[in-house]
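I can't quite decide. Please look over this sequence plus C-alpha cells:

:::
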Amino acid sequence: MAQYDIIGDVHGEGTRLHQLLVSLGYRPDDHGCFRHETRTAVFVGDLVDRGPEQRLVLETVRAMVEAGSARIVMGNHELNAILWSIDDPDGSDNFLRKHSKKNRKQHRAFLDQLAKPERVEWRRWFRSLPLFLELEGLRVVHACWHDPSLAVVRAAIRHHEGQTNAFFLEAGRKGGTLYDAVETLTKGPEISLAAYGLPPFLDKGEFARSEARVRWWHPTGAKLSDLAIVGELTAAGTPYPDISAIPTREVDRSFHYSDTVPVVYGHYWRRWYPEEREDWTTYTACVDFSGSLEVTPLVAYRFEGETEIDPNHYLRWPISTT
C-alpha cells in the first residue's frame, strides 16, 4: 500500500516547508525538486496568503506535483484567488470574489509578493487542482468530506467538461447548489448562531461572525459546544455565552462523517494541544495548526495504510516534545 505524508496549510512559509520536508525524509534532486524514495507528499491546499515566501512555496509544491512526488487538493485560499480574478457580469464590483477591504487584507501577501503576470499563471495552475482526493485507503479534502457535496461537484465537472471558467462562474455565485457544495468542501459547513438565539462572535481575524464553523468530525455533535466553533468573545467584546447545554438541530448534524475510511483535512487553524484530543477521531485527522504563525507548527500526518487514525503518526516542524 502507498505511504503518504499529508501536509497541512502552508500559507507562504517556504523555509519552514523545506525544513518539514527534510524532517520527513524528502531530499531535493539535481533540479531542486523534493522527493522521497518510498513516500508521496499530499498537500491539503492553502499554499498562499499570510506568509512571506509565496513564490518559494508555490514553486516547491508545483515542482513536486509535476514530478509525481506530491499530490494536492485545492484550498479555499486558492479558490479565493481564482474567484478574485473572474469577472462577474451580474456583480456590483465585477468580480466573483469581491475586492473588499477584508478580502484584500486576506489576499494581500499573494498580491504584493507576485507580479501580475505571475499571478495569472499561478491562478491558471490553481484551476487544475482537484477539490478532493480518493487514494488507496485514504481520503483528503481541504475542509470537509461530505458525500452529497462531492456528488454535486462531480456532476458539475462532467457537465462543464472540467474545471473550466464556466464551472467557476457557477461555483462562485451564491445561492446555487454548486456554490454550496464547493464552499462545503473548501471552507466547511457553518451553523447559523441566530437560529439558536446567539449573538455574533469575534473570529481570530477579529471579524464579527454570525455563523460558526461545524465540527463535522465530532462523533455525535449532540450539543452545540460539540458542533459549533465560536470565539471567546462576542462581537460586542463580552464573554461568549455558554453553549454546552444547547441541543443541536438535526439539519446542523447532517454533515457528520460516519464512514470508516480515514480522511485527513486542513483549514481549521487548530491549536497544538494534542492532549485535548480535539484534532482527530477514529477516522478523521486535521493537519492545520496555523503554520504561518511563529508560535505554531507546520504539521504532517504520516499515513502508513492504517485503517484508523493513529495520533502517533503526527509530525510537526519545529519539532518539540511538549
